[in-house]
Amino acid sequence: MNRVKCNYCGKEMSGFKRLKFHLAGIRGYVTPCEQVTDTVRETFHKMIETSGQKRGRSQDSSSQSVSPENGDTGVATDKQDLLSSKAHKKCIGRFFYENFVDFSAVDSPSFKAMMTVGCGEMRLKIPDPRDINGWMLQDALREVQDHVKRIKDSWAVTGCSILLDAWVDQNGRYLVSFLADSPAGPVYLSSFDVSDIKHDVTALRSLLDGLIDEVGVHNVIQIIASSASGWVAELGESYSRTKQGVFWSVSVSHCFELMLMKIAELHSLGDVLDKLKKVTEFVNNNPLVLKLDRDHSHGTDVTVCSSEFEFVMPYLTLKSMFKAKNHLAAMFASSDWNEEEEDITIFKLVKDSSFWETVERVLKCTSPLINGLLWFFTANNQHVGNIYDTMDVIKESIANEFDGEELCYKPVWDVIDDVWGKHLHIPLHAAGYFLNPAAFYSSDFYLDSDVATGLISSLVLLVKECPIQAKISTQLDIYRLGEDCFYEASQADQISGISPAEWWAQNASQHPELQSFSVKILSQTCEGASRYKLKRSAAEKLLLTRGMSHGEKQHLGELAFVHYNLHLQSCKAKLSEETVLQDIFVGHFVKPPKDLEANQVSSLPSRFLGKERTRVSDFPSLLVSDSANRMNLSMDIREHGSWVDKKKDRVKCNYCGKEMRGFDRLKFHLAGVRGGHVTPCEQVTDTVRETFRKMVMEETSSAAANNRVDKVQMGNSGSLSVFSGLGESLTADTFVMDIYDHGVIVNKKRRRVKCKHCGKDMFGLHRLKRHLGGNGNACVEATKQDLRSNGAKKWIGRCSNENRFDFSAVGSTGFREMMTVSGGKIPDSCDLNGRMRQEALKEVQDHVRKIKDSWAITGCSILLDAWVDEKGRDLVTFVADCPAGPVYLISLDVSEIKSNSNALISLVHGLIDEVGMHNVIQIIASSASGWVGELGESFSRSKEGIFWSLSVSRCFEYMLLKIAEIHSLGDIVDKANKITEFVNKNSVVLKLVRDHSHGTDMTVSSSELKFVSPYLTLESMFKAKNHLADMFASSDWNKEEDITISELVNDSSFWEIVDRVLKSTSPLIHGLLWFCTANNQHVGNIYETMDVIKENIAKKFNHEELCYKPVWDVIDDVWNNYLHSPLHAAGYFLNPTVFYSTDFHLDQEVATGLISSLVHIVKECDIQVRVATQLDMYRLGEDCFNEASQADQITGIAPAEWWAQKASKHQELPSFAIKVLSQTCEGASRYKLERSVAEKLLLTEGMSHGEKQHLEELAFVHYNLHLQSCKAKLSEEQ
Length: 1278
Known about the structure:
59% helix; 5-stranded mixed β-sheet
């Protein structure tokens, strides 16, 4: 029999399932336990409640429902279904860990809808946040640890580079994350807060040396820093001086940034960019001007250009503008131009030849640098074997730009040499140049003393054994002469199309010492951690561990480890994919310029000619304007071609007039891509060509993916073993749609295929694609299925907008796995950021309109959320709150006006006018200090009909802070933390405590309101004090250890102070927690709540005034200065639950508050009189209030609802009462707004009007979806 016994009361019952109900105190299947502790009872109660909610939302899941009669667990109907359900949950977990999405997003309505609509029903169970944060995280941790171990095993062959990512967070902390990078993939190591040791180079060295020891000194080849200033620079100088076998360098992208900054200083670039900004803003912000400009430039936009590297954007914009200068001049000179006074400045600037001469000079200095950087970051060019040659080519290109005039190019060379010498260059680069066969066996290779000494230095530092050094030296001579195995391997066809490290792995097995040395050097990168775009917020959260238990810290560490390594794994797969795609498409996109002389052609890179040399006198242009990027999202092929014969599917190019079959061929024609069975268009503009090239590349990426593994994997059976698995990290191969899933070959010889959806027979797979895609004779059955697919896409977009995960997350491995197992079709990031966002915007606007319509009845409160971001900007977000739901209004940067009260008041008045003066009842601030406090004082003095108050949670925080000062709480909490940490860190002690406390954990108690956590912990500790004392007094306890903790637990004076603190604070905290639950946060409750809190504090001290009076004084001080407003008094009077109770007390403050609210909210004198008359009936309980004032008519209904239902006979008073009682006392913190969205929104310098509008729409959609979800969740809890 499955009989179990309760450890608390000894009762026996059938199965652990019944025991859960017994311990939770839930009647129905078993009697509640009377002896279980409160903590255990609440835990099991929540567990059962959560389990019931999950069963309710997924009744169609594969597992059976569970009841106590079934024993301790439910039995799955099908083992395979159970396994698939677990796999499905793991995929969802991976998505959350990889993209660092808040676990609570799994409960959002849009996430549930997204997971449901893809397959028409909820086939599999969605895990709850506890699953994701529990067993699923542990499973993911084990998988990631296995993945990391495989990478670490490869370091013995390839070595690795330590990448250092340092930054200062919003709290002013100096943080750093360390990665280890190698060909097998990057690995996250750890994150540190170095704030306390940033000026101590010895301590920093010790920290880094410890990390290197952990990785393995023999594995670490170099350290690449993300910065060349501050503590990072000091640490770098220290490492560079010691020469301890590890090289130090600064990331190549940051060095290029430093070069460009110094060059900008030479040419006063700031002034040039200011003028440039005026022109671009004038053109882009004026639709008529923009149209004229496009007419004269054949579709080219004068826009701010974008790049993966923000620091190159001004230069790309400058280049785009310089190309368009003649078009701009032609526009201003045309008859279409209507010359106005305000445009003369722009006109003169465009006509100013000296301005364009300066621009041209800047471009001659910077274009080779930028083109070189962008080339370096394409495909597989970032290894140390390329940087030496790249820098030489850049310098030669700059000299060529100035026609060899030393006076012009020498200052730029000096800047490049300065940064190269101080920050970038290390001996490893020289060794890489020598050992790179593509450079070494070319006619341009040049061996100088710098290269020779760099090679020697690398050999001495990396190879410690003298005999091996000697062997390598001998083998280097064979390599130099191209003898032995190097004879054939040095031929051009053996070098091209293969990375240097692969070349050594495949061709030098006869010389293992040199091979090993070369592979280790050429496997190192020149770029830092910025390449992987780590989410720093994960590390910031990880390093905020003050007050946490050992278990909580460990949990956060595991979460960061899983997140970062999944993210890095996904990045590696994506970079590998891009490398293969570039190899496939480079023949289409890059071709030698037609006007090159024969001697110039010989110097072109192998990508042009298939030769071994990577050197190039002029890098291929990789600059594509932002207009092309944006056009890629919205450009319609039908705007560039027209129908000739719809029946025969014939179209004509609008540029050259060529006719062809279908718009698909027209895309290839316009893109200039041969292979689309059509010749390239010679007359199309560069912008349109580049846009359609990108489009074609994306559309054909699925074909490229089929060959990805073969392309990415390095080596063969005879090569070094580590290279056989470099391409085996997770990729998106399994998610590429296969045409054979939708059609079957009927006749292979005649190339006849049949559609699986409708059965139609046709010629060739290309026709099947068109048939399924909706072109020509479209498939009706497939279209029906697409309706569901479009629904899934819509909900994916909504989920992305609501939970604010980056649009690029849809390309992550975790997201694709998750959607594949749920049956949803995955949109790309362009869909999310384009059409789907516009659809979401329309829906959100409709939702917001409905809420705004309700303001006429309920009014609204403006919630003000102010903060200072990590850039030192004073930002604020405004939300309008009412019973129908909260609405995001706007975010603003008030840095420049924060000291100007008049400007701030004008700003708020403008916002109130927009909402409607008659709709706004009060403003609730998030702070009482700084510019917010001054603004509040100004509003309170003005008495302009709008009340100002501070959020109730912030006021309670102030009260607790002041009470803490009275009792020296800091010292008490420190002692309490020592006890909890001692217990929770020691498993033996923890078991002893649990034995003596019947299962109670000594943990740090948590709350949604962080500032109450120390008090909750103190309360938990005080309840367990006797159990602790029993444990220390028991025979099981080893008296010798931890005498300090034992003395503290037995110190009666310590517990007396704790008792006094809890008497002062517990009523406050429990009053606040009650106030913040369900529907209690309206103004009708706060008056009574504060009175009850004060009475409870007096009771705790047995009404000894000397004890409770100081606490009352603190509460009264905060209440009077920050919280109380006349609206609260009016709410107290108009709340029928309070008013018709025996405890109601009408004093002068309540009466004057009611009158003040009436005068401020109701402006018409005749209505004021009617309200006053009806208030007398309400007071006396006459007329309709007679029956409505009975207890059974009041309980279980919100005060505002009571007035709406019971007092409709008197229109004026209910209208006034509803407006008062519909207001909240809590601020914006209740909704946990993601401030990073507003921070990004307010970084618009240099953006075009369209880009700013796009960001505003995105913020509007995200915030309002988030607020909508919060409202739904709060209603559900209620």
